[in-house]
Specification:
heterodimer, A: 456 residues, mainly beta, Methylamine Dehydrogenase, Chain H, 4-stranded antiparallel beta sheet, 5 helices, 28 strands, B: 194 residues, alpha+beta, GMP Synthetase, Chain A, domain 3, 2 domains, 3-stranded mixed beta sheet, 6 helices, 10% strand, globular, WD40_PAC1 (chain A), WD repeat (chain A)
Chain lengths: 456, 194
Amino acid sequence: MSPKVTITHLSDLTPPSQERTWLTAPHPTLPIVATCSSDKTIRVYSLTNFTLLSTITGGHKRSVRTAAWKPHMTGESVLATGSFDATVGIWRRWDSYGQEDSAGMGMSSNDKPIPADTLTAASNGTGTVAADREEEDEEEWRFAVLLDGHDSEVKSVSWSASGMLLATCSRDKSIWIWEDLDDGDNNFETVAVMQEHGGDVKCVSWHPSEECLASGSYDDTIRLWREDLDDWGQVACIKGHGGTVWFLDWEGEETEGNWSGPIAHSDSESELSALQAQWRSQRALSGPRLLSCSDDRTVRVWRRQPKESQQTGPLSSATTGIPSIIRPTGTDEVWEEDAVLPRAHELPVYAVAWSKRTGLVASTGADGRIALYEERFVTREQEQEQQAGSDAMDTTSGDVLRTEWVLVGVQDGAHGIYEINHVAWAKRADRGSGGEEEVLVSTADDGSVKVWTVTR
Amino acid sequence: MAEMQNSNPTILNAADLPTRLRPTVTRKSEYGGIFTSALPLTPVDFESDPPSDSEDDNLLEEPIDEQEIYDLISSISDPEHPISLGELAVVSLPDIAIKPTLPDVPDSPLQSVTVLITPTITHCSLATVIGLGVRVRLEQSLPPRFRMDVRIKEGTHSTGDEVNKQLADKERVAAALENGALMGVIAKMMETCH
C-alpha cells in the first residue's frame, strides 16, 4: 500500500574483528570509519573499498566501547575513544591516506614515500599540514593523550558541534565535559562534572549546532544540559521510557536545498510547499528534535516546547493551576514526547540513527533486526478520513501541522543470528555510487560490520 | 563473605532432581513409554527440507530443550555452600522456558531462554552473582542464536527488580566478564560443572 524502502547489502568491512564490535563511527568528511572492538582495538576501515586500513592498538586495557571523530579538522584526523578501562584516549593521524582513498585509488597504504623529515610529524601544532607528510605505517595513528577521571567503564563520547568540547559518560553515573585547549600539547581541561543521573550514563550526544548536551541513562531518563553563567547544569529531565535509554541522536538542521523533513504523498506542488513552509516555521521555534531508543523496545522522538509558548501553553499557571513559582524559569526547558515510532523490535533497541540527508530513521538491537521509519505529513483529507469514524473534533488541526511515522523497511537477521549493537548513516563512497547517496553501517556481536544501501 | 547469609539452607536429595537418565514425570506425560529417552527430543519432520540456513554450525546443532538447560546450570555451585544450585532448588526445571524470540518470523533461528532463579533467602546479596553465573554459563555453553533472560522469580527477593535490570544489561554483563575478581568467583562456582 505505502511506498516501501529497500535495504540491500552492499559489502562487509573486511577482515572483521574476531570479537564483539560495539560501534562504528563514520568520519565527518573522509570515507573512513572507526570500529570499536572488545579485543581492545579500534579498526579503521575504508568505505571506498571496504577493507581494513589500520588497527589502533596499545591504548586501552579493556574493551573499546565507543569512539567519535572531532569535527572541523583539516589535514589531520582526531579520534576520541572510550573504554571499559575507564579511560578516554585521543588519537591523531595526518590525512594523506584518506584523501587518496577518496580520489578512488583504493588500497593505497603501500608504496608510500617515507618522508625525509619525520621530525615535523611530532608537530607542536604550528607546522603546516602540507609539510607534515606521513609517518611510517606502524606509527600512523599517534597516541596523543589519555583522559583519566571516570571511576568505571566509559560508555559514550561525543564532540560538540564546534569540536571544542568533548563529553564523556560512564557507569559511575557521571558526565564529564572536557575542553580541547588545542594548544598543540594535547591539553584538555575539565570544564564540568555532572552527577545528577541515578544510574549508568549510557550515551551522550551534542546538539547539532548549540552547546547543549543530551544524555541517556540506566535510570530510564534523558537529560539535557547547558552552560548558564560559567556553570553547566541540567535544563531538562525527560521521563517517558520504561527502561534503560541506550542511545540518542539529533534531528539534522536544515541545510540549503536539502529537505530532510517529512514526506508528503500529495500531487499538489503548492500544497507541498505550503506544508514545508509551515513545517519550517514550527521547526524554527522548537529547534531540532531528539531521537531515543530503549530497553523498553521503543523508539521515541522528543520536541522542545518553544520558549514563547511555555508562558501560555499547557504548563502555564492559567491552564494547570500550578503557581508560577514552580513553573520552569530561566534556562529550564520543557521537552515533550513528539512521537512513539511504530513498534518494530522484540528485544532491547541498542541504537538509532537519524539521517541528516533524508530524514529517515534507522533502529537496531538485540533481535538482530534493522528497521527504517519515514515521517509523513498528515494531509487534510487524511485527517478528515480519520475523524469520520470518531465523533471527536480535532481542535488543533489548522494551526499545528501533524505528521505520522511509518515503518517502511525491516531487515531481519541483518547479521545472521547475532545481536546488532550500532547503526549509523554515512556518505556512500564506493565506485558504484553516484552523487549524494548514503549508506547504513551496522555493527554486530560477532565482530562483523556491514554496509547497506537504502533506496526509496 | 565474612558471614554466611543462609547457614542452614534446605537441600534436596540429588536423586530427586530431574534428569534425563531416568524417565521422569514430565517426560512420561509428554511422550509416554519407557523407550522415549532413546528418541530424539524434538519430533523430526522428515518431509520438510533440511534447514537451508547454512549459517556456521547451525546444521549440526542438536535440539536443545529445558532439561538440557537445567543440566547446564543445576550443577553450578552456590557461592557460599559447596552445594549445587539444583540441590538448593535455586534453579528448577519448571522455571526454565524456551520460546521463539521472533514469533512473527517463523523461520528465524533465534530462541529465548528464560530462567527464573529462586534465592534461598529473600535478602540474599549474592543473588546477582548467582544470576550472573547462570547467565555466563549459558552464554558460554549455548550457540549464539539463543538470547538469555535470567531473572529472579517474582516475590522471592527484596530487590528483585534491581537485580533483574543488572542481569539484563548486556553492557554490564560484558564488563563483568572483564572483571578478574568477579570472574574468579564465577569460575569457582562452575568448578562443579561437567
